Amino acid sequence: MGAVRILIVEDDPRLARLVQRGLTEAGHAVDYARDGETALVRLDDTAYDAVLLDVMLPGRDGFDTCRELRRRGAWAPVLMLTARDSVEDRVRGLDCGADDYVVKPFSFAELAARLRALARRATTARPTLITVGDLVLDPAALAVAVSGVLVELSAKEFAVLEALMRRPGQVLSRGQLLEHAWDHGYEERSNVIDVYIRYLREKIDRPFGRESIETVRGVGYRLRNRD
């Protein structure tokens, strides 16, 4: 699974922080909502690749939140999280539109594996490899090669490059690149994108005598379409 954008909906801030930290360290962009109403606002504004949804929420519970997001046409995969392990609760969650179910307490490894499976299921139309000229990116293996030579990238470098490679020849603003690779904690005026573009040029361009990432002044960046 390449870098994806995940929404955690959980009213236990300690648990939410732990899960958010683990997923962020794995290279994903992770946002957090403490209740169902906030989650629905986030889902209206942002296209998430997966939603981790607690059942026991203040106000609108997880079942009703899931039912409402499906009614609104949001079809991001939903992994429900609950302390209740009865068959009835699991059936109720699946019937309201959830895709999978994890019972507390859980291991982070299992949670991450289930999220990876859901993201794969939701993106089966994505190509196995993304190729732009002699640049090849493998989202599943988190691998990048230039002219057949493997290049080691950090998770965030990979996420920024993936965003550019999915739209070769198209100018992406710093805000668009931030949205793909970071959560709402970063603001568009941050220069973090400029820093990571510099890192990418040092790894995929300079060593190979190429200039594939172009700066469009006042707008953003573009990956040159060598096809």
Sum this structure up briefly.
With 227 residues, the chain is α/β, with parallel strands linked by helices.
List keywords for this structure.
five-stranded parallel beta sheet, 12 strands, four-stranded antiparallel beta sheet, Arc Repressor Mutant, subunit A, alpha/beta, 2 domains, 40% helix, 227 residues, 21% strand, 8 helices, Rossmann fold
Write structural notes for this entry:
It is a single chain. With 227 residues, the chain is of the alpha/beta class. The protein has two domains: 5-122, 3-Layer(aba) Sandwich (Rossmann fold); 130-223, Winged helix-like DNA-binding domain superfamily/Winged helix DNA-binding domain (Arc Repressor Mutant, subunit A). It has eight helices and twelve strands. It has helices at residues 13-25, 36-45, 62-71, 87-95, 108-122, 155-165, 174-181, 192-205; strands at residues 5-9, 29-33, 50-54, 78-82, 100-103, 130-132, 135-138, 143-146, 149-151, 172-173, 213-216, 220-223. The strands form three sheets. It has a five-stranded parallel β-sheet, sandwiched between helices. Strands 6-7-8-9 form a four-stranded antiparallel β-sheet, with helices on one face. The longest helix has 15 residues, at 108-122.
